[in-house]
Specification:
The complex is a heterodimer of chains A (about 400) and B (about 180).
Chain A lengths: L12 E4 L7 H7 L5 E4 L2 H5 L3 H10 L6 E3 L8 H13 L4 E6 L1 H16 L9 E2 L9 E5 L11 E6 L4 E6 L7 E4 L9 H20 L5 H23 L4 H21 L3 H13 L3 H32 L1 H6 L5 H20 L5 H4 L7 H9 L13 H12 L1
Parallel strand pairs in A: 1-9, 2-3, 2-4, 4-6, 5-8, 6-9
Antiparallel strand pairs in A: 7-8
Helix pairs in contact in A: 4-5, 6-7, 6-8, 6-10, 7-8, 7-10, 7-12, 9-10, 9-14, 10-12, 10-15, 14-15
Chain B lengths: L1 H5 L1 H28 L1 H8 L5 E7 L5 E8 L2 E4 L10 E5 L2 H8 L5 H6 L3 E4 L2 H18 L2 H7 L11 H22 L1
Parallel strand pairs in B: 1-4
Antiparallel strand pairs in B: 1-2, 2-3, 4-5
Helix pairs in contact in B: 2-3, 2-4, 2-6, 2-8, 3-6, 6-7
The complex binds fe (ii) ion (FE2).
Chain lengths: ~400, ~180
């Protein structure tokens, strides 16, 4: 008998497809919620993405009680406290987060405060602190990448102390994630590309890192198939709602995969690079993915080879000898990156970003070694290894 | 209680083994931190007075070490002088046994949801690397390859320390054989 053991958990109801937003009022009523608060950011509002959400609710006679649209890109404990204050003042009874990673994380954190009470969110930081279900919470993602709508994690910056507070609890998961293609139709090309590559990385790392399991594998491969199939098509036809829906669903599936089997070195390097050089997360993912796969190659040859089927389709898979499939998977990812570079200049090397200097590489390597994701990388990474990967990713 | 009546000896042996292994690891951590540069470099990033605990949930055996500065650890047995900074907790003694009898790698145990981390995750990452390094010292190459992700090519420890630790390992192996049956 092997020692293999795994856990898989995803209690989020997924409501996806055409006119998905119009299901929100029914879902709210089903949980006896009558006074929802929308948590979002200025960008979402300016892009006109709130209107369909509000209209969908009002048409069913459900008034949105309050809208907070000032979530910053890096949400803080002060913002969370302010929003919780408004929620209480307006006597709201549920939260709808509309946006990307930051708005969703903020929604999760606000839900802790308004459900558990108090003003000090730091008190609830850490793993497993929450012991009870929270208020009704819904998420409407407006990017297709982070997968935050199906993860039980939120990260909020404590500005006074200058630290990032992590929160993990299954109770942070929303009651439902609403995936409507209207929400991602207007995403600009470079964000479409970077966020899709974030999802691609979630799925690829989930499938090749230490905590992979049969259930997360199923989600990971489906996500990769959809992204490979639709990403370039959407880049060329941004208004294609079927393609947009494919990417949004892929992002959710990749989120389910990685939240159950974790990520690895690509994320460790990406988190460090984001913190030091202020580069967007998705961009870092796209940049490091092939270099890390090359570094891990001999440990992940079998699973990586399997991914060729989802990256390139059955013809290419069948035509490639089994012993060459892992390398062919890496080539497929490189080819995709080249195509994205051609369409929106998504950088493929650190040098191409124009925002990283060579003398920062050591700092990035050191910081990556302290990142939690590195624990699940299939190969044990030393400082020298991390430096070597960064040098390869340089130019 | 029913389970106790069925296999009392096995459970007793497993408990004793985990307890013994915690003691071995605690002492070995202190010893290794006195001679091995790699362990010292990893440990140096921890605050002085940092207390690390490994325990079996809910109130089982535990191992506590303190980082006393300059990358050195001091073994505290199972008594912490103050609240610990980082705790790695096995969900069940059976999971602790899998790891401490080198049937499951520490990193795999994390991946398999066998244990929880309470505290700063970056310190947990560091301590996992220290434990990997330690395991490769104590164990003969063959078993160590199973216990750690990769067997380091550059182990230079006084033979005396290694052989001392391996004596414990012998005891340990006997335990595994008894308990496994
Ligand atoms: Fe990511």
């Amino acid at each position: 008998m092997t020692n293999k053991y795994y856990e898989f958990f995803c209690p989020v109801k997924v409501i996806a497809g055409k006119a998905a937003l119009e299901h929100i009022p029914y879902e709210l009523t089903g949980m006896a919620a009558k006074r929802p608060m929308i948590v979002t950011d200025k960008g979402v509002r300016a892009a006109g993405l709130l209107e369909p959400v509000i209209a969908a609710c009002e048409e069913s006679g459900l008034e949105i009680t309050s809208i907070y649209d000032d979530v910053p890109p890096d949400s803080s404990t002060t913002v969370v406290r302010d929003i919780a204050g408004i929620y209480r003042q307006e006597k709201c009874d549920s939260i709808i987060a509309v946006g990307g990673g930051s708005a969703i994380d903020t929604g999760k954190a606000v839900n802790i405060l308004v459900s558990e009470g108090g003003d000090d969110i730091a008190k609830y930081s850490g793993a497993g602190v929450l012991k009870h279900p929270l208020k009704p919470f819904f998420v409407v993602p407006t990017t297709a990448g982070t997968g935050s709508e199906v993860t039980s994690v939120a990260v909020i910056t404590d500005e006074a102390k200058g630290v990032k507070l992590p929160f993990t609890s299954p109770f942070l998961l929303p009651n439902a994630a609403i995936i409507d293609p209207r929400m991602t139709l207007t995403l600009p090309p470079h964000i479409t590309a970077a966020t899709a590559m974030d999802a691609m990385t979630h799925a690829t790392e989930a499938f090749t890192c230490m905590a992979k399991n049969p259930l997360s594998d199923a989600y990971a491969t489906s996500a990769i198939k959809k992204i490979s199939h639709s990403l370039l098509h959407v880049m060329d036809n941004p208004k294609d709602s079927d393609g947009r829906l494919d990417l949004a669903q892929a992002s959710t599936m990749a989120g389910i995969a990685f939240s159950n089997s974790m990520v690895g070195l690509v994320h460790a390097l990406g988190h460090a690079t984001g913190a030091i050089c202020h580069l967007p997360h998705g961009l870092c993912m796209s940049l490091y993915l092939p270099y890390v796969l090359e570094y891990n190659l001999e440990t992940i040859r079998d699973p990586l080879g399997e991914l060729l089927l989802y990256l390139e389709g059955p013809e290419v898979f069948a035509a490639t000898p089994a012993g060459r499939r892992a390398e062919a998977s890496i080539s497929a990812i490189r080819k995709l990156r080249d195509a994205l570079y051609k369409r929106c200049q998504l950088p493929r090397t650190l040098k191409e970003t124009g925002k990283v200097t060579e003398d920062q590489l050591d700092h990035i390597a050191e910081m990556a070694l302290d990142d939690g994701s590195i624990m699940f990388n299939p190969k044990e990474v030393t400082l020298e290894d991390a430096r070597a990967v960064l040098r390869r990713a340089w130019a | 209680m029913l389970a106790k009546r069925i296999q009392p000896m096995v459970f007793q042996a497993r408990r004793l083994y985990v307890e013994l292994m915690f003691q071995v690891m605690g002492r070995a951590l202190q010893a290794v931190s006195e001679v091995d540069e790699k362990v010292q470099n990893e440990a140096r990033a921890l605050p002085d007075g940092f207390l690390f605990e490994m325990m079996v949930m809910p109130n089982g055996s535990k191992l506590i070490v303190e980082h006393t500065g300059q990358g050195r650890f001091r073994y505290h047995d199972d008594q912490a002088p103050r609240p610990v900074d980082l705790s790695i907790q096995f969900k069940h003694i059976a999971h602790a046994f899998l790891v401490l009898s080198f049937q499951e790698k520490t990193s795999v145990a994390f991946a398999n949801d066998r244990m929880l981390v309470d505290g700063d995750i970056s310190y947990a990452v560091r301590m996992t690397r220290v434990l990997n390094r330690l395991e490769s010292f104590i164990l003969p190459k063959l078993i160590a390859e199973r216990a750690v992700k990769e067997y380091p090519a550059d182990l230079h420890l006084p033979e005396k320390l290694i052989s001392a630790a391996r004596i414990y390992l012998k005891v340990a192996t006997n335990f595994v054989e008894t308990v496994r049956a």
